[in-house]
Amino acid sequence: MQLILLQLVNSLAFGSLLFLLSAGFSLIFGVAKVANLAHGAFYVLAAYIGLTLTGLTGNFWLGVLGATVAGALLGVLADRLLLSRLHGHELRQVLATLGLTFVISDLIRNRWGADIKSVSPPAPFDGPITVGGMIVPSYPLVLIVIGVAVFVLMRLVLRKTLAGAQIRAVTADKVMAGTLGLPVLRISMLTFAAGIGLAAFGGAVGSPQLALSPNLDSRMTLYALIVVVIGGLGSIEGAFLAAMLVALVSGFGAVYFPAFAEISIFALMILVIAVRPQGLLGRRLGNA
């Protein structure tokens, strides 16, 4: 039971990080129609920025805040200087973001080196707690709470606010939204910044959970793509459900079926595509 509880907590914490990553990816694709293959690179870059800021300030949460803001600003720069010039050219956008991934990865290696770095959880979450007589680390529980809180907040913003209605309108039909007077380009830019900011926040706050290395970007981008495919494009609820499923399958698979751990998440994705091509909570193309 101790092993099962520990693995459950760690898996759900990883699922929260996957949600922060994939929700931003889905948001960007839905509004800006950009398949941002540099999403994982921004996640990792923000984690390293947070590591540096934490060392300078001595405060982990200030490091997270600074890394999130830096990630959002870098997202705006990437959109304005690069991707905005490629609207309507999907293949060029994919190649541009793929190239940006290599640039960011090399910048990380040049600034922080290629060695794996570990980050200690902040006090008072740097030690274990007792749950039902069993000992579990406390920081993964913090990540679970953060993931649920961000999910609830995003759902409220998208469903209950004017900004959320505008984002949903641009996602549904960009041309019609522009005809109705919505500032489509500004909404796309701010959504891109928010999506990258979510990934940056996930990278910074998740650094004590996942060891940092420049090669982590490709793994996280792959996970984001799998989560979005399973959950369904444009569905925050689908992204949350899929992130938790992928994390649980990956986490328990690594313990009980280590030989098939990497294959299991792809098998899950293939199964979902076979049963529901639009994803668990996605909509079929052409549906209202």
The radius of gyration computed from the alpha-carbon positions, rounded to a whole number of angstroms, is 19 Å
Q: Helical region count?
A: 11
Low-confidence stretches: none
Could you tell me how far the N terminus lies from the C terminus, measured between alpha carbons in angstroms?
46 Å
Label the structural class.
mainly alpha
- Element order, helices and strands? HHHHEEHHHHHHH
DSSP strand count: 2
Biggest beta sheet attributes: 2 strands, antiparallel
User: What is the beta-strand fraction?
Assistant: under 5%
Strand order of the largest sheet: 1-2
Mean pLDDT, as a whole number? 86
Approximately how much helix is present in the residues?
Answer: over 70%
Overall shape: globular
Written account of the structure:
This protein has a domain at 19-214. Helix content is 72%, strand content 3%. The chain has helices spanning 2-32, 39-57, 60-81, 90-112, 139-160, 162-172, 174-179, 184-205, 216-231, 236-256, 261-275, and strands at residues 128-131, 134-137. The longest helix has 31 residues, at 2-32. The mean pLDDT is 86. Keywords: Amino-acid transport, Cell membrane, Membrane, Transmembrane, Transmembrane helix, Transport. It comes from Deinococcus reticulitermitis. It is a multi-pass membrane protein.
